[in-house]
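Journal club side-thread
Mid-discussion, someone asked how the predicted structure for our own chain would compare to the paper's figures. Pasting it here so we can look after the session.
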Amino acid sequence: MIIENVEKENASFITLTNSAGLKLTLCDYGAGIYSIFYDGKSMNVAPTDKKSWLNEDTYFGKTVGRIAGRLSKGRLNYLGNEYQLSVNEGENTLHGGKEGFSFRHFKMDVVHLGDSVAVDYYLVSPAGDMGFPGEIALRVRYIVKEDEPSFKIVYLAKSKSETPLNLTCHAYFNLGGEDDVEKQLLFVNSDETMSYDKELIPLGFKKSPSCLDFSTPKEIGKDIDDPYLTSIRTLGYDHCFLFKEANAEETQIRMESQDYVMDIKTSLPAAQIYSYNYPHIGEELVSGKKTKLHSGLAIEPVYKPGDFHSMSVISDTPKSDFIEYIFKKKGE
């Protein structure tokens, strides 16, 4: 394993390169993924300019929390109490508020685990942080094996008092660095998707309409202009998919380009999928291309929105979840 550490724009970027052709660059700001290369090709979407990556509000590859997604009017009703949270999207709270985990410097450590290397990021979020109850002690661990083209994110959280926590990785994918992802195929092990109001506040899961049915692989762009989608102020997908079965050993999501395949396995029961509907047009990307509509697809495994019981960290009881990304060449 080759490990390189670079300080840039008051942040620390570390790159892990293994013998299977995977090159993963991480950052302590937002405990995030800056770039993923496999077989010499870009697998994700991120601006070449690291300053832009750090400062833009598109959450490129960063850890999102405390609660991923939107909370109406910044109100959290939890265990009989109402908490007013930081609002950062109109009257609503998005991805943890104005200074959610995506906008924090984490402490970093590198750990050698036999045939793997782990990069650990640590953060303590005090009670009342962005309005959320309870102190959270968080570790975000990225694990890369020497001889496999894959990596795993393991979230470990502890709290002194019960509190909700719904973390995810907000990475945008484009396998092989194509102009956009509309011709790439997507499979999601789901037949239910979230419905929303006009502000994209979750209303509840329903049987997926045909435009959101990826239970059989289809091109991402096939139904991306469907009126069902445009009726809620999106320019594509911004929907939560509930997995048919919560099986951490099975592939829940598969994305395929002309040359590459990415499988996602996770302990989480659902995934928010967002087709980069409001990009900064013309921005230089790590792939060598420039940003356009639907340049990438954000795939964000999560707990079910509003299911605070399932996502709760219980007092003095560690809570762990994972997301694993597996890459391969088409036909292997």
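Post-session note: The chain has a mean pLDDT of 95.
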